[in-house]
Specification:
alpha/beta, 48% helix, binds 3-phosphoglyceric acid, TIM Barrel
Length: 232
Amino acid sequence: MVNGYREAVVERIEEVRGKNMSNTVNEILETSPVMPVLVIDEVEDAVPLAKALVSGGLKVLEITLRTEAALDAIRAISQDVEGALIGAGTITTPAQLQQVRDAGCVFAISPGATPALLKAGKEIDIHYIPAISTASELMVGMEAGYTAFKFFPAESSGGVGALRSFAGPMPEVTFCPTGGIGPDNFCDYLSLSNVACVGGSWVVPSELVKKKDWEGIKALAAGVVQQAARIR
Ligand code: 3PG
């Protein structure tokens, strides 16, 4: 029975990932204006938290590999949250790329990039999104075949001004800026032509998660979607 259950879980995860993998990386990033950056401590929070965000209109989720619960959280959301496009964050090794792929992710994001990750990201059947913070890093990533990047840490690496400057020589590249972005500046980023979406933890305040205030998180997500709709 236990084995049968495990097989069914793996099958379900494969099915959901397979369906969502028909999207290009840009289609995934452009699905929602903001990508919540999730740090999940308790696996039991994963599904209600993801459901709250998805029903508030934020469907693309970055689950960071910063907690022990992260991989189980990814598996649980893959199985049980219809409509979520699940990615993993804080990827620092090629082995983690494989782990999150097997747990059900359709994309994976790093806070930077290494030659090994740039290579592994091209060999795996999920979308890999490396991060850059300078023009030279961007050129290395482009040379490896990437056209979509996280821009991290966005605010302290030049913010909106830096992204506007990248658009001149590299107009074909799209970004998900993350780091230091919040309610007061996310729309400035979204108004740039080379920004597909912005990432941030502000849409998932830890005090609301601790209180399991899923309605509060849904309302926050819906408010962000509404604000973004005014400029897009
Ligand atoms: C990340 O993990 O991508 C960032 O740490 C999120 O940055 P923020 O907490 O400033 O949104």
